[in-house]
Amino acid sequence: MKISIIHGVDDKFFPMERVQKMTTSKIVDGFYSVKGTHNEILLHQETHTKLIGQVLDALEKKSEKDNT
């Protein structure tokens, strides 16, 4: 299973510094910082659709590469 994180830089619930300290390349396959708060993706889904598609494509390619 592949995991990527899309995280808002102004997230008050999970501050960026704390998330970056807890996240390593050993536990996630991608980390994307986006402008906004904790609910940014939920509140403005249309603006994040393209990024989500790119993230899923990257995870699929990584999975294919790891399986060869």
Quick overview of this protein structure:
The chain has helices at residues 16-22, 40-43, 45-66; strands spanning 4-8, 30-34. By secondary structure, the protein is an alpha+beta fold. It has one domain (4-66).
Task: Describe the SSE topology.
Blueprint (H helix, E strand, L loop, with lengths): L3 E5 L7 H7 L7 E5 L5 H4 L1 H22 L2
Q: Explain this structure to me?
A:
- This protein is an alpha+beta fold and 68 residues long.
- It has one domain (4-66).
- 49% of the residues lie in helices and 15% in strands.
- The protein contains three helices and two strands.
Quote the average pLDDT: 92
Number of strands: 2
> Spans of 5+ residues with little confidence (pLDDT < 50)?
none
Radius of gyration: 13 Å
| Tally of individual domains | 1
- The total count of helices amounts to 3
| Apparent shape | flat
Order of helices and strands: EHEHH
Largest β sheet strand count, sense and barrel closure:
2 strands, parallel
Provide key terms for this protein.
49% helix; two-stranded parallel ribbon; flat
